[in-house]
Specification:
The structure is a single chain. The chain is of the alpha/beta class and 170 residues long. The protein is built from six helices and five strands, in the order αβαβαββαβαα.
Length: 170
């Protein structure tokens, strides 16, 4: 199934009120999550020109009562208040040390009981597959500074800064 539509059904977001979709682009993940979880509101945090485009998509989808935008730079700008941080296809663009910076930034910005969700295609723990993800990993390493991560690598990254109850799921 289409990833932005599937993950909100796979994870219980019932205790969260405000999702910050960091690098949220078109707002598709924010709109999907707020459609599935009626009490959830979301803010798409992205660069100013991206927020302008996202606002159009949000309006076209009839989601302006549940999804807003906040312009900023994920490396320099403080995050607006939220109890759920969500990164979709952001980590694979960056080397591990930059991803650790983002994990730490989220940990420091989230209130006690806050949650961080990293949405990526996961390599197996031995990093040999699955074949589609391994192939995509080669592309990421050629075109970006980043790479695909295994679930174990992401679990370690989040645990290192203090997140608890950390798990990885396909």
């Amino acid at each position: 199934s289409y990833a932005p539509m599937a993950w909100p059904d796979a994870i219980d977001l019932g205790r969260h009120r405000t999702m910050l979709d960091i690098g949220g682009g078109s707002a598709v993940h924010a709109m999907s999550a707020t459609t599935r979880w009626a009490d959830l509101r979301a803010t798409v945090f992205d660069l100013p020109p991206i927020c302008e485009i996202a606002r159009d998509y949000i309006a076209e989808n009839g989601s302006t009562d549940r999804v807003t935008t906040h312009a900023g730079d994920l490396w320099k700008s403080p995050y607006p208040a939220a109890d759920l941080h969500f990164y979709a296809d952001i980590f694979h663009d960056w080397p591990p040390e930059r991803c650790r910076f983002l994990v730490r930034k989220s940990f420091d910005a989230l209130p006690p009981g806050g949650r961080l969700i990293v949405h990526e295609m996961l390599l197996d723990d031995d990093k040999a597959g699955p074949p589609a993800v391994a192939g995509y990993n080669i592309l990421m390493m050629l075109w970006t500074e980043g790479q695909q991560f295994s679930g174990a690598e992401l679990v370690d990254m989040l645990s290192e800064v203090g997140f608890t109850e950390v798990s990885a799921r396909r």
